[in-house]
Write a structure and sequence with these properties.
It contains 18 helices and 22 strands. It has 553 residues and is an alpha/beta fold. Helix 1 (3-15) crosses helix 3.
Amino acid sequence: MNSIILNRYQLWRGLATDAQVSAQLAAMENDEKAIEDAFYKELEFGTGGMRGEIGAGTNCFNIYTIARVTQGIADNMMAHGQKTAAVSHDSRILSDVFAATAARVFAYNGIKAYLTRELAPTPFLSYMTREMRADIGVMITASHNPAQYNGYKVYGADGCQLTDARSNEMIAHIAKVDPFAVKTETLEHYLASGSIEYVSGALERRYLTEVKKQACGQAEGLCVVYTPLNGAGYRLVPKILVEAGADLHIVPEQGMPDGRFLTCPFPNPEKAEALKLGLELARGKDADLLIATDPDGDRMGLAVKTADGYRLMTGNETGALLADYLLARRKENGTLPARPVIIKTIVSTELAADVAKTYGAQVFDVLTGFKYIGEVIGRLEQKGEAERFVFGFEESYGCLAGGYVRDKDAVVASMLAAEMTAHYKKQGKTLADRIGELYAAFGTYTHRLRSFEFPGAAGFAEMKRLLAGLRLNLPREIGGVEVVKTVDYLAQTEFELPPADVLLFDLSDGSRLIIRPSGTEPLIKMYLSAAQTPQENEKAFARLEEFLAETFG
């Protein structure tokens, strides 16, 4: 075994005092692979925070890696003269312990920590950070990853996830921290001294008031099945749906928080298998709509009843439907601003842009990541134009209406999805019917995601080589179809966006190809879209996929 890895393991054996971590270290004593996996590197803190498997070791998620990262963040905050932090968590295993650990480290460093008494959705942490005027927000969550994972997201005072520049500052401070040198008092000690303070229920009520302000109608007469997938949406989403007038039924096996996710190993509302129990209950209740939210309550998936059974709506379809609904209803209600704004990521459907133009709305395309949507809302706010923002979304099932938070919010998305479904039900339509009308008007927008994996150091080098080669030989045509527009987001100056390793190709047949490396996995991701008839779309996809196979296969 590598001597550096062995030394790290032995150091932890000698210094770790936490009973659970100590037991895990002892259990791997004669397992060289387990030791190597746990200690071959430090768990990385990147621009989106930190995520990893729960366990003992430098490459795992535990109270020592939490303490190390939080101390580094605290050091960076003190360098900026910042003195307050907001901390919350979802339903994952040990999330409450990790949140309390982070709050205690902040308090030890003289930073006042506001802490939720129990789990809460990620958008509430964004709201809490803004409302409590905290300098930094921390959310303990691994979003929709499997049960063995947990994570750590960091937010700025504006309620957005951190900018790349600030994250890099924090990484430099974190690198200097010895996790076993971080000392704190107990949670009870800091609660008694006021260094840690629980946020009141009044804050949650104010948050829900802001959610309800985004309503354009009611959900009366609508039968809804809801599953929080054992996550943090379990209280607030049902509350908002019942207040909207829905006849609500909650999937019993998934209705309460449980970080083991026993009935859905991949608790992701994008995945059909996660909705299996919800669909069974929906059929039994003859429900109009199934709503599912992920473990930290920021993403929402839908399935709608049709004459042919339940149809799962994609994130792109939901985003386009909600943009269309909000623009139309607010125009009818007289609340649509003079210059409405819709914000979407560059990999999200252009159908929403087509819809927006019919209402005279300005569309902002931003890089992948909801923080970029939040940044545009912030710029509007700075100009005194916050009221122009109507809706933002990304294809990966994240939506937001209203600027009260700066992250995707499945609470408001669930409310709007229910009232939208009820609105069309009164007209004798389903969401499937309405998306069909939009397709008839603007083209049958179809999207596919493809990826090529490049594992290990050699794979990473090969991935970089292939992307560099593509930039040196940009295609003028793909499968005989002319490329009419190419955007290299590393070098472009057309849009108000930071540099990003993304390439976009628009073809003369209306199809589009976007290529980018994943920020968290050894993958190159390819987003394919076409907007003609289903038959023509299939031909376009075949051409694009042949090009990708030749370039990256």
